[in-house]
UniProtKB/TrEMBL annotation:
Residues 254-278 are annotated as: Disordered. It comes from the Bacteria. It comes from Rhodoglobus vestalii. This is DNA polymerase III delta prime subunit. Residues 254-265 have a biased composition (Basic and acidic residues). GO terms for biological process: DNA-templated DNA replication. InterPro entries: DNA_Rep/Repair_Clamp_Loader, P-loop_NTPase.
Length: 388
């Protein structure tokens, strides 16, 4: 089994990381290959965390050793004794979480040559929290390696950027993502190709669209709702519809996970299914439920953002059609509607709508009420005379 298997379209990044892991295994002192802190950047769905864990496994296991597969399994399960991980399902990473990880990074490796610390979504750290991490990056223990993941270098403070080596991932080709879905998940080639195209090469979302009929239906409803808006009152109604779609999407992603998490927690605490929870254990379950609520908040934001991305893809297709620009359309399943809208509207109005969608994303990210942000965005569509 290859540690880098399934990391679609990232040959250049893999070559850099594989070279670094190889030099470290051979005891090389070549600083151009290996360093103590890394930043893996790339667009959503490019596989930042996946490649980070593959790199961690390569550092923690000896290349060519027969136990390489078992090391990789431990890393993926987050159970390796020399691996520290900070990932969050919330909107931000708290300063206490970073302090705890920094403290753990000071210990020497127990079974391997390195102690590897991974922070997923490092862009979710506030400046004060980032400064706590900065001190650890400035004076790391000799055998500790930090791996940070973020969409771009600009998402981190300059002082952290100056202390890490960046590895940039690219957006995988649609054909590569479709091939991965077909070979790994057994998805029919035509469905895989459509899912990869509509997900815009986001591997995780492509997998979901290819394997979940309800996710496909929610996406189709999003586009048809926007195309059906003609009046301001319809825009207000459509905003409520899109908000419900986002909530349903977020619930579908978190509900099953929350139930499994609760069942696992009860089992580990020795509470039988349906049994009474002892008072002494209720505080632990309450803390878990609070984390789940915070995760639901982030899930809703992510669901809203997926709606915005889908709408941007729709109006991007309309704009390309209006100006006759080269490039494959994303939403080929509704090509007739795209052509109809492109014929009776102008590129200027389409650009104005795309600006409105971008503004709505910014407003929601700034804690503006999602309902109000959606209404303002869809009113702009109504004013521009959009319709199916």
């Amino acid at each position: 089994m290859s540690l880098w298997e399934g990391l679609t379209g990232q040959a250049d990044a893999i070559a850099v990381l594989e070279s670094a892991a190889s030099s470290s295994a051979l005891g090389s002192t070549d600083e151009s290959s290996m360093t103590h802190s890394w930043l893996i950047t790339g667009p959503p769905g490019s596989g930042r965390s996946n490649i980070a864990y593959a790199f961690a496994a390569a550092l923690l296991g000896t290349r060519g050793d027969e136990t390489e597969e078992s090391v990789y399994k431990q890393v993926i399960a987050r159970t390796h004794p020399d691996l520290g991980v900070l990932s969050t399902e919330r909107v931000i990473i708290s300063i206490d979480e970073v302090r705890k990880l920094v403290s753990a990074s000071q210990f020497s490796p127990s079974v391997g040559h390195y102690r590897v610390m991974i922070i997923e979504d490092a862009d979710r750290m506030a400046e004060r929290t980032s400064n706590v991490l900065l001190k650890a990056l400035e004076e790391p223990p000799p055998r500790t390696v930090w791996i940070l993941c973020a969409p771009s270098e600009a998402d981190l403070i300059p002082t952290i950027r100056s202390r890490v080596r960046s590895v940039r991932l690219r957006t995988p080709a649609i054909a590569d993502v479709a091939q991965l879905l077909h070979e790994r998940d057994g998805v029919a080639p035509d469905i895989a190709a459509r899912a990869a195209r509509e997900a815009q090469s986001h591997i995780g979302m492509a997998h979901r669209l290819a394997t979940n009929a309800e996710a496909r239906e929610r996406r189709e409803t999003t586009l048809t709702t926007a195309l059906g808006i003609r009046t301001v009152s319809e825009a207000v109604i459509a905003a409520a519809t899109l908000l419900e779609l986002s909530k349903a999407d977020a619930t579908a992603l978190t509900e099953e996970r929350d139930a499994q998490e609760r069942e696992s927690a009860l089992r580990s605490l020795g509470v039988a299914p349906g049994g009474t929870i002892p008072p002494a254990l209720r505080a632990q379950l309450k803390a878990m439920e609070e984390d789940q609520k915070r995760r639901a908040t982030r899930g809703l934001r992510d669901g809203l953002d997926r709606v915005m991305v889908d709408l941007l893809s729709l109006y991007r297709d309309i704009l390309l059609t209006q100006i006759g620009a080269p490039g494959e359309l994303i939403n080929l399943s509704i090509l007739n509607n795209i052509n109809s809208v492109a014929e009776r509207t102008t590129a200027v109005s389409t650009l104005a709508i795309m600006d409105g969608i971008a503004e709505a994303r910014h407003r929601i990210d700034s804690n503006v009420s999602p309902a109000l942000a959606l209404e303002a965005m869809l009113v702009k569509i109504a004013v521009s005379g959009r319709g199916a």
